[in-house]
Amino acid sequence: MSENVRSTGFLKVGSSEQSTVTPSQRSALIRKGNELFNSGEYEIARKIFVTTSYSDGLIRMGDYYRKKGDPLEALKMYRIAPAKEKLNLLLEETAEILRGWLEEE
Fold it and tell me: Distance between CA 94 and CA 91 in Å, rounded?
């Protein structure tokens, strides 16, 4: 069996070495992510914010997804951020919707 295929049958695609980003590289990436977000290139900005663990950017992405009507993606972004207050608010709203559906039946 190839060393890239584990006994579970999954292909190992990542490097075993963890890449490191210097603080100045992280700052440059965050600036670029903010520029992309502001120009409407949300998915590329999202990738940068996730890669750099930039909480403010992740929260803005969560807000974007929430306004767009995609609460699951918003939930993911708030959880990664971590933005506990926004996460809890979204969960409470979701629970209220579910309660309403259950009461209709």
Answer: 5
